[in-house]
Specification:
There is one protein chain. This protein has about 400 residues and is mainly α. The protein has three domains: about 60 residues; about 70 residues, no CATH class; about 220 residues, no CATH class. It contains 16 helices and eight strands. A two-stranded antiparallel ribbon has the order 1-2. Strands 3-8 form a two-stranded antiparallel sheet. Strand 4 and strand 5 form a beta hairpin. Helix 1 crosses helix 3. The longest helix is centred in the first third of the chain and has 25 residues. The radius of gyration is 38 Å and the shape is globular.
Length: about 400
């Protein structure tokens, strides 16, 4: 208040300032006179007059010559200019959010229970981002408040508040946890970072010794798609089929996984950020072949089962599944109707450790790797067929 009053008075004329100064001094002198006549009864008036005199002096002091003008100021950018880089008026961002909300990454619930150190690097957002910093395949501790994969898992959201926030958090070549091979799927490396086989321990060796399996979850784990796509990680039993050294999909598709799984979306139901290759419409499952039907691949195709190859692989998988059941090697008790292959495991009677020959363990490993890939050979037809045919041949 005092500062405002001073600045206000400073803006008035010197005449007003002088009047205030004279009046204050008049009262000051008058009060001194009264004070000398009556003693100390006017002390508080004396203090008031003294303060008024100080104020007048300050007012007069502030009326000196005006200094030189400063440089012109620079207007700051409004907040909307920053936010609007991403949050603009179009439905660009909204469409991707709607797609992602239909994805299994968003709808899946495993992050709530798979927050342990060995699981969290792929099943939780926090674990994945931590692993990018530590370069480790496990987290340093259990994630106490886990969240599932989200926008910030794959993108640098709200880091620089510009278009670089859309950049992928991981694009480097991937070294497989099982086998140690390094692969490069371009931007698809982000997917391969998690969608790969975990270390199989103990691991069977072709024509090697038997192994003891103590956990029914032994094997490559779920969705080791990158291994099938790259053509590595299987138990490569010699047989009538030759294991290919290349994969046309990997050779011709620059960015691997995302080229097909994030193809031009069908609404919020397939492609784009749903990552889905099929969707339901009018009670029927529809195959989203947008990426397959391009001029460089399979122009005009309307289905995945090109030349009957998907049907062929499905039949081979079914044959191997039955063969393993008949030999007491595969536990399908959690999947009695055969609709959810993810619930099938190596058979440990009474859930007790069991010894398997290298062929037996390798056969189960190949089945779990191929069946839980769930592409029915689409990811890598030749490698998938070789694993299945040669395994069936060895089990005769």
């Amino acid at each position: 208040m005092m500062r405002y009053l001073t600045e206000k008075l400073c803006s008035e004329t010197k005449f007003l300032n002088m009047i205030i100064y004279i009046l204050s001094n008049f009262f000051y002198i008058k009060i001194i006179f009264i004070n000398t006549q009556r003693g100390g009864i006017m002390k508080r008036f004396f203090n008031f007059a003294f303060a008024l005199g100080i104020l007048a002096f300050a007012i007069i002091s502030c009326t000196g010559p005006e200094g030189p003008a400063g440089p012109p100021g620079k207007d700051g950018s409004p907040g909307t200019a920053v936010c609007g880089v991403c949050h603009e008026s179009s439905s660009f961002l909204l469409a991707k959010q709607m797609q992602f909300h239909n994805s299994l990454h968003y709808l899946g619930e495993n992050f709530g229970i798979a927050n342990r150190t060995q699981c969290a690097v792929c099943h939780t957002h926090e674990g994945f981002r931590e692993s990018l910093t530590t370069k480790l395949d496990t987290t340093l501790a259990v994630i106490p408040n886990p969240t599932g994969p989200n926008c910030r898992t794959c993108h640098y959201i709200h880091t620089k508040y510009d278009t670089t926030d859309y950049a992928l958090t991981y694009t480097a070549p991937v070294k497989f946890r099982y086998g140690g091979q390094t692969v490069d799927f371009g931007e698809g490396n982000l997917c391969a970072k998690c969608h790969q086989a975990r270390p199989v321990s103990p691991a069977p060796v072709v024509n090697g010794d038997s192994i003891n399996v103590a956990n029914f979850r032994w094997g490559p784990h779920y969705g080791a798609n990158a291994n099938i796509y790259a053509g590595v990680g299987g138990f490569e039993i010699p047989g009538p089929e030759t294991y290919p050294t290349s994969n046309p999909h990997k050779t011709r598709i620059k960015d691997g996984c995302i080229t097909c799984h994030m193809a031009q979306p069908f609404g919020a139901f397939a492609g784009g950020h749903t990552f889905k290759m099929t969707y339901e419409s009018q009670g029927q499952e529809v195959e989203h072949v947008a990426s397959c039907a391009t001029a460089d691949c399979h122009p005009g195709t309307t289905k995945f089962d090109i030349d009957g190859k998907v049907t062929e692989i499905k039949n081979l998988i079914a044959q191997l599944r039955q063969k393993l059941i008949d030999k007491g090697l595969l536990d399908v008790s959690r999947n009695p109707d055969g609709t959810n292959v993810l619930n099938e495991y190596i058979l440990l009677p009474g859930n007790k450790p069991k010894k398997f020959s290298s062929l037996e363990a390798g056969a189960v490993l190949n089945y779990l790797l191929v069946a839980k890939d769930r592409s029915n050979g689409i990811h890598n037809y030749k490698y998938t067929k070789a694993l299945l045919v040669n395994t069936l041949n060895a089990l005769q």
